[in-house]
Design a protein that fits this description.
Length: 162
């Protein structure tokens, strides 16, 4: 870049700076900020719908049980609430849904059915009281398992590598 080009750029930047820091422009920007703030507060007060992902954890799997299928790590939940309440879901980390299934694995069926009612109850316990649950997926789950008839033993090498 040549010296004359740099001088021209500096002059243009000074003109732009002088324009934006006049009393009229600063007054306009202050009122623009105030009106945007009022609009944002008003928009957050209206009912909205959104999808959130809630982590899903199964606890109480005995050591002798081998799972045959993989369950989803999250439940996709569609909720309706005021915007400010939905904003909290994004800001705060949602606590995971924990299912204790120790008793279900004692049966010899090889299948654990997680009903829609059970999952809905757990999802509603996780959501705010003001939130309306519209739908969630998957709404029912099957957990296939088998009992292992062998024991896994850790193997440790007792040699020195050189």
């Amino acid at each position: 870049m040549s010296a004359s080009h740099r001088i021209w750029v500096r002059k243009q930047l000074k003109k732009v700076k002088a324009f934006f820091f006049t009393k009229d422009v600063l007054t306009f920007l202050v009122f623009l900020f105030i009106s945007t703030s009022f609009w944002f507060v008003h928009a957050l007060d209206r009912p909205r719908e959104t999808k959130i992902n809630i982590p899903f954890v199964i606890e109480g799997i005995p050591a002798d049980v081998q799972l045959l299928n993989k369950l989803p790590e999250t439940l996709e939940v569609k909720v309706r609430d005021k915007g400010k309440n939905l904003f909290r879901y994004g800001k705060n980390k949602i606590r995971p849904i924990r299912l204790e299934l120790t008793e279900e694995f004692n049966q010899d069926e090889g299948i654990v059915r997680l009903s829609k009612e059970l999952l809905q109850q757990k999802v509603l316990a996780t959501l705010n009281a003001t939130s309306e649950l519209l739908k969630f997926a998957p709404d029912t789950m099957l957990l296939l398992y088998t009992h292992q008839h062998q024991k896994e033993v850790p193997v440790v090498m007792s040699a020195v590598l050189q």
